[in-house]
């Protein structure tokens, strides 16, 4: 029983780490795009939380598409 529990915990932990790494990569990609297009500076983005960065990124994408 202990081995099965340990395996499931380990699997969930790996999934959690993988999801976190994916979110960090998406955040980095959004920041890089905003900086590259000069829509925001790195200093501005450092003071923002994830949701704010996502909002700014989507605003930038909408402006560029129109």
- Poorly predicted runs: none
Secondary structure: number of strands: 0
**What is the 3D form?**
elongated
How many angstroms does the end-to-end distance come to?
Answer: 58 Å
Helices, by number, come to 3
Return the average pLDDT rounded to an integer: 88
Biggest sheet layout: none
**Element order, helices and strands?**
HHH
Fraction of helical residues: over 70%
Radius of gyration: 18 Å
How would you classify the helix and strand content by structural class?
mainly alpha
Beta-strand content: under 5%
3D structure, described in words:
85% of the residues lie in helices and 0% in strands. The mean pLDDT is 88. The protein is elongated. The longest helix is centred in the first third of the chain and has 35 residues, at 2-36. It has 66 residues and is an all-alpha fold. 5% of the residues are buried.
Keywords summarizing the entry:
66 residues
Topology:
Blueprint: H1 2-36, H2 42-46, H3 50-65
Helix pairs in contact: 1-3
Summarize the structure.
The protein has 66 residues and is mostly helical. It has helices at 2-36, 42-46, 50-65. 85% of the residues lie in helices and 0% in strands.
């Amino acid at each position: 029983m202990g081995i099965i529990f340990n395996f499931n915990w380990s699997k969930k932990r790996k999934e959690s780490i993988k999801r976190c790494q994916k979110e960090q990569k998406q955040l980095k990609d959004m920041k890089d795009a905003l900086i590259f297009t000069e829509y925001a500076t790195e200093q501005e983005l450092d003071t923002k939380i994830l949701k704010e960065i996502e909002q700014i990124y989507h605003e930038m994408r909408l402006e560029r598409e129109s």
